[in-house]
Amino acid sequence: MPQPSELDAHLGFWLRFVSNHVSHAFARKVEAHGVTVAEWVILRQLLALGEVPPSRLAEGLGMTRGAISKLIDRLLNKKLVTRSAGKEDRRFQSVSLTAAGRNLVPKLAALADRNDGEFFGHLTDAERDGLADLLKDVVRRHGLKDIPTQ
Questions:
Q1: Which CATH architecture is the domain 18-142 placed in?
Q2: Mean pLDDT across the stretch 21-50?
Q3: Residue 103 · residue 35 · CB < 8 Å
């Protein structure tokens, strides 16, 4: 009977190893600012999209409406987003950043940039681009769509 392959013989092992360390380091950084990584993702999307219905956030991020609703509730409690009802149909709601949310996003983006630099700053531009291209190719080939939030 052949010996089973070693854990570290798999690319998935190394991807997970690096991903876990990068993700946990970033989570500690954003949590020091009072938000989770999932909340950061919502805040960043809202900066890019402006005022949007929660359903659009859910679709764009590959999350359920229930998960988005819970995240929005947490961000409402932190006064980082606001929710407003539609003028013609009160059941229609939209979400947008508050001034505090708009001020926080660039600070968190700088943390994301610094975290990337800490883990990947030793790579040359060509190595970094090559790694990104390889990972994006895996995403395309497998039709991966959900944005990571954890």
A1: Orthogonal Bundle (1.10)
A2: 96
A3: no
- Which amino acid appears at position 34 of this protein? G
**What is the CA 142 to chain-centroid distance, rounded?**
19
Q: What is the 3-state secondary structure (H, E, C) of the chain?
A: CCCCCCHHHCHHHHHHHHHHHHHHHHHHHHHCCCCCHHHHHHHHHHHHHCCECHHHHHHHHCCCHHHHHHHHHHHHHCCCEEEEECCCCCCCEEEEECHHHHHHHHHHHHHHHHHHHHHHCCCCHHHHHHHHHHHHHHHHHHCCCCCCCC
Cα–Cα distance measured from residue 94 to residue 110, given in angstroms and rounded to the nearest whole number: 27
Q: What is the pLDDT of residue 37?
A: 94
pLDDT tier, 89 (very low <50, low <70, confident <90, very high otherwise): low
Q: Work out the average pLDDT over 45-53.
A: 95
The residues near 89 (Cβ < 8 Å, ≥ 6 apart) are none
Beta bridge partners of 95: 52, 83
Beta pairing partners, 84: 94
48 vs 42: CA distance, rounded Å: 10
* Residues 87-90: contacts with CB under 8 Å, at least 24 apart: none
